[in-house]
Design goal:
The structure holds two protein chains of two kinds.
Chain A: E1 5-16, E2 19-31, E3 36-40, H1 47-55, E4 60-69, E5 72-73, H2 79-85, E6 87-90, E7 97-101, H3 102-116, H4 124-137, H5 143-146, E8 148-149, H6 155-169, E9 173-177, H7 185-198, E10 204-208, H8 212-218, E11 222-227, E12 230-235, H9 238-246, H10 249-255
Parallel strand pairs in A: 3-10, 3-11, 6-9, 9-10
Antiparallel strand pairs in A: 1-2, 1-4, 4-5, 7-8, 11-12
Helix pairs in contact in A: 2-3, 6-7
Chain B: H1 3-14, E1 29-31, H2 38-47, H3 52-66, E2 90-92, H4 106-114, H5 121-126, E3 140-146, E4 149-153, H6 156-161, E5 165-168, H7 169-175, H8 177-183, H9 194-202, E6 207-211, E7 220-226, E8 237-242, E9 247-255, E10 262-265, E11 268-273, E12 278-285, E13 297-308, E14 314-321, E15 326-329, E16 332-335, E17 341-350, E18 355-364, E19 370-379, E20 384-393, E21 401-410, E22 416-425, E23 431-440, H10 443-451, H11 456-472, H12 477-490
Helix pairs in contact in B: 1-11, 1-12, 2-3, 3-9, 7-8, 11-12
Classes of the chains: A alpha/beta, B alpha/beta.
Bound molecules: adenosine-5'-diphosphate and magnesium ion.
Magnesium ion binds near residues 47, 48 and 92 of chain A.
Chain lengths: ~260, ~500
């Protein structure tokens, strides 16, 4: 059986004041189709960096290792090609686009990936129907569609907007980078529902989180613990409970 | 179809060379010998069969010009212009003058077709050529100026039934001499500045609009300027007079072939608004900007001024400036009538080696006059763009108000954007507000858009159109879409 995502020995660094600073130091990770995996790990261990490298952010230098996504060399693709291929990243800090109407942005994005996937573009009516249904599920007001992308959104609204985009773009693999951070219980449940609604044999998720509560909703297939730029332990859902109870100390010792 | 999608397709079709208006029309021309002197001016005047007073006016302007020097305060750099090394008159050889469309040289009709300018009234009226999914366009009356002469003006009959005069200015000189004589140079005097004096001496054609008392002009008017001939300057002159309680919306567009040499375009536009009159003047300026190394392109040195003479009159300038190697242009309002209103909405885009120094002047003379300035400056490549604006409150301008908002957007780190506001307030009760911002399209924004599947061009297009939104919405609907496309095309190759 073919893996959806296979990361092998991935090393990546960033230019920090003219010197390369290594952040990812040999990441190995496999996600089969239809599974939800979680990455947990202390602040600064490289979780966001991993998600950026997978999405194709150019500031990071991949120095060695490989990533295949649906059998293709992911590292060889432009960010927009990765998106078209079905990779979605819900940003830890969603970016503001002043003056860019949220609905227009969403429709442009949806039609860009549909075109690239050889699907018919959505016309104004079709799009409106789809987006109305999605916003309703996420308890979002229509007003948010009329505003500029993420401008003046509260933390919770930004995260919900990410989930809205994910729903509309129909990814094969969604990476959610701390999408649950800073959400109240109700918002957390809504976001979790948004992900759960997508669960199917054709949808996988890599969920970066610090909280047991989101995982309780999602029921992940596997948990990976990241420390100092590596996956240091992988296991079943019980691993998350252990972290919740004991913290990361023992894993950090392993990584040292 | 959203504009952005259209734009993207457009850009893809264009491939590398993005200036699609750069072709040349092969047509027999009547060209004056090179050089600027009394002889040339007499020749132009004779070709146009002008009355004596106008020839005198031209010659006086020429004398004034001889004593003047080119302005050097603008933040633009270019080699000295040899005014003797250009032609000042070039016209398709067929005799100019009023004629029906069937008499226009088919080669010219094809040219305008290629440019997407509708000169066929019937097709427009019947709305037959509307492709599926597109809205039927409202008819727009067009005056087509090719090099030095107007070659066709559409919908004149419909307009004249409404009492509106829309004709080439050379014809207006003949048919409405009193009106022309009364208003020509009344807003921009012949000796106003170096380029205005030059224009007054050698102007060849342009549009004349007169909207009488109480008439709302029944359709959009537009003039489409095309430079075609080599080594030729274009000096058009537009005069728009709107009487009490009347209104008009006017749009000008312009393109030129791609050439290695620079060509001079020095126009003068004069607007006169009487009591309760409204003039909306929109420009989509798309002269050839030169190539990516800065070779060729139009020098666009233009004087545009509107006089709000009557109480509660209103003049609104909207400009989208994407073309020209150099733009030097400050559409202004003289707010004389009590409670009169001036507006200036501008998007100026420069890419590659383009330079723009543009802005406005709002001169508040009357009480309770108001002005609004929204200027959006976008610089990319190695280009340089300056907003230069003057707000002047004269002693009698009690309770006058101005609001100015200047925003600059930089793409890349080799371009420049500058804001130079001049404020003079001589009335204690007048209020002036000025806001300015400078921003860059950030890596974060680009990456975010691309992660959502947008190409770099699409991403820049979306962000730029978002940045310009407040100005684009001031354009007449059908032109707003054109303008959005143009913005994206002019910024092609500015990222990645
Ligand atoms: N652009 C950058 N410049 C310098 N250091 C960076 C940059 N991005 C990330 N880092 C560093 O890399 C490490 C990992 O960061 P990050 O991937 O954001 O961690 P996490 O998401 O696990 O909290 C941190 O030490 C962080 O400071
Ligand atoms: Mg992080």
């Amino acid at each position: 059986m073919t893996d959806l995502l296979k990361i092998s020995g991935l090393h990546a660094s960033i230019d920090a004041d003219g010197k390369p600073k290594e952040i990812l130091r040999g990441v190995d990770l496999v996600i089969p189709p239809g599974e939800v995996h979680a990455i947990m790990g202390p602040n600064g261990c490289g979780k966001s960096t991993l998600s950026y490298v997978l999405a194709g952010r150019e500031e990071y230098d991949v120095t060695s290792g490989s990533v295949t996504f649906m059998g293709r060399d992911l590292l060889d693709m432009e960010p927009e090609e990765r998106a078209a291929a079905g990779l979605f990243l819900a940003f830890q800090s969603p970016v503001e686009l002043p003056g860019v109407n949220n609905a227009n942005f969403l429709r442009t994005a949806v039609n860009a990936v549909r075109r690239a996937r050889g699907e018919a573009e959505l016309d104004a009516v079709g799009f409106l129907k789809a987006v109305r249904a999605a916003t309703k599920n996420l308890s979002m007001s229509d007003d948010m569609l009329k505003r500029s992308v993420n401008v003046g959104f509260s933390g919770g609204e930004k995260k919900r907007n990410e989930v809205l985009q994910m729903t509309m773009l129909q990814p094969t693999l969604a990476i959610l980078d701390e999408t649950d951070s800073g959400l109240d219980v109700d918002a957390l449940r809504i976001v979790a529902e948004g992900v759960k609604n997508l669960r199917s044999p054709k949808f996988s998720a890599l969920v970066i989180t610090h909280h047991q509560r989101l995982l309780d909703y999602l029921g992940p297939d596997r948990i990976h613990v990241m420390a100092r730029g590596r996956i240091v332990r992988s296991g079943g859902p019980e691993l998350a409970k252990q972290i919740d109870a004991e913290g990361y100390a023992s894993f950090l010792a392993e990584a040292a | 179809m959203p504009a952005i999608t259209e734009t993207r397709e457009q850009v893809e079709k264009l491939g590398q060379s993005s200036y699609k208006w750069g072709f040349e029309t092969d047509i027999e021309m009547d060209v004056a010998p090179k050089g600027l002197n009394e002889e040339t001016i007499r020749l132009i005047s004779a070709r146009k069969e002008e009355p004596e007073w106008l020839l005198e006016w031209r010659l006086a302007a020429y004398k004034a010009w001889l004593t003047m020097t080119e302005p050097s305060w603008a933040k633009v750099v270019y080699p000295p212009i040899d005014y003797q090394d250009a032609h000042y008159y070039a016209a398709p050889r067929k005799k100019p003058g009023p004629k029906s469309l069937d008499e226009v040289d088919p080669e010219l009709l094809r040219t305008y077709e290629k440019l997407g300018i509708p000169l066929h009234e019937q097709a427009l009226l019947a709305g037959v050529e509307v492709p599926e999914g597109e809205e039927a366009r409202l008819p727009v009356a067009v005056d087509a100026v090719f090099d030095s002469v107007s070659v066709a003006t559409t919908f004149r009959k419909t307009l004249s039934e409404a009492g509106v005069i829309f004709s080439p200015i050379s014809e207006a000189v003949r048919d409405h001499p009193d009106l022309v004589r009364k208003y020509l140079g009344s807003v921009v005097p012949a000796g106003d500045n170096f380029y205005a004096a030059l224009n007054s001496a050698v102007f060849t054609d342009g549009s004349f609009v007169f909207v009488p008392k109480g008439v709302r002009c029944p359709m959009e008017l537009s003039t489409y300027f095309r430079i075609n001939a080599r080594n030729t300057g274009q000096f058009e002159r537009t005069l728009i007079i709107v009487e009490d309680g009347a209104s008009v919306s006017y749009l000008e567009g312009c393109t030129a072939p791609m050439r290695d040499e620079n060509q001079l375009h020095a126009a003068v536009v004069e607007l006169v608004a009487m009591e309760d009159a409204t003039i909306k003047y929109s420009t989509v300026q798309n002269w050839y900007p030169g190539d990516e190394n800065g070779l060729g392109g139009i020098y666009n040195f233009v004087t545009k001024r509107g006089a709000c003479r009557g109480a509660r009159s209103k003049i609104s300038w909207t400009q989208v400036e994407t073309g020209s190697a150099i733009t030097w242009k400050y559409p202004s309002c003289i707010l004389q009538g009590e409670g009169s209103v001036g507006e200036f909405y501008s998007v100026a885009v420069t890419n590659n080696h383009q330079q723009a120094d543009t802005g406005t002047k709002m001169i508040h003379i009357g009480r309770n006059t108001r002005s609004t300035i929204i200027a959006k400056t976008i610089s990319a490549g190695k280009s340089d763009s300056t907003y230069r604006g003057l707000v002047r409150m004269l002693p009698k301008a009690s309770n006058a108000r101005n609001f100015t908002q200047c925003d600059s957007l930089l793409i890349g780190d080799q371009c420049g954007a500058h804001t130079v506001p001049y404020i003079e307030n001589r009335n204690m009760s007048a209020r002036i507000e000025h806001e300015a911002t400078t921003s860059k399209i950030s890596e974060d924004q680009m990456f975010y858009c691309r992660q959502r599947g947008l190409s770099q061009e699409d991403a820049v297009g979306l962000i730029v159109n978002g940045f310009c939104k407040d100005v684009l919405k001031e354009l007449p609907m059908e032109f707003a879409v054109e303008a959005q496309k143009l913005l994206q095309i002019s910024l092609e190759g500015s990222v990645g």
